[in-house]
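Justification of computing resources. Each target in the renewal requires a structure prediction run like the one illustrated here; the chain below, 293 residues long, is used simply to show the kind of job we budget for.
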Amino acid sequence: MLEQFGAFVEQYLSHMPDIRITDVVEILIISFVVYHIMVWVRNTKAWSLLKGLIVILGFLLIAAIFNMNTILWIAENCLSIAVIAIVVVLQPELRRALEQLGKKNILSSFISSEGNRQEGRFSDHTIDEIVKAAFAMGRTRTGALMVLERNETLVEYEKTGIVIDAVVSSQLLINIFEHNTPLHDGAVIIRGDRVMSATCYLPLSDNRSLSKALGTRHRAAVGISEATDSLTVIVSEENGKVSVAYGGELFSGLNQEGLREKLEMVQDKPAEEVKKGWRNKVKGDRNEKKADE
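Resulting structure tokens:
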């Protein structure tokens, strides 16, 4: 019995092609590229176009099964025109994708040092100051746009503004966005615990699913969150509400705790600090319960 099983395995393996290291590397590269293309397509209007193409391909498959030669002839002659049309329609998305590819450090996506992450992330004190400034400006209905840099650099947008390079504080942020001051128009860019520049220009989002009631400030916040992995805090000049734009989405009407949670979500704390924070929170809750008793 064992001999028969061994012979079967040997016969099965003899028909398998030789797998080289280059084949494995090739599969990994193709998987990586296809995955990122699918993620890119999912987050742009190319997703709607792709669904439309799937419907058309399904229709053409039916036409091929039933030998509808006229439809197939039309489709074959329109193929080259369709390819050019798709490139024209998706030109903004393709340009943005190529820009992101040019800005990314490929090796850093695979190998990242803990030291670099700690150097670039912002502290709990900075979160406190941003929350304090945002809701202070909300009470006076002072419009504000604060962009927090994460892994992808914002130097390109930073250059469009005026250099500040100062430690983040609520007083500084409030003064920058005060009405009728030279720096109030545009966005501030925050890297780590420092305000790097003010009056920066941001790309506007062309996402048609956004509410038409949103102004330029909110569209710019969504636009920069689509182009980079940054998080943007917005204070509405019309109603004083605080919102956050992250990953191409807008989270509106946040309270102080909600804003703090969004900022902590992208803070990239080391695991030990997260555990320590939870332990302290649990201890604090226990002490509060004992005090109530």
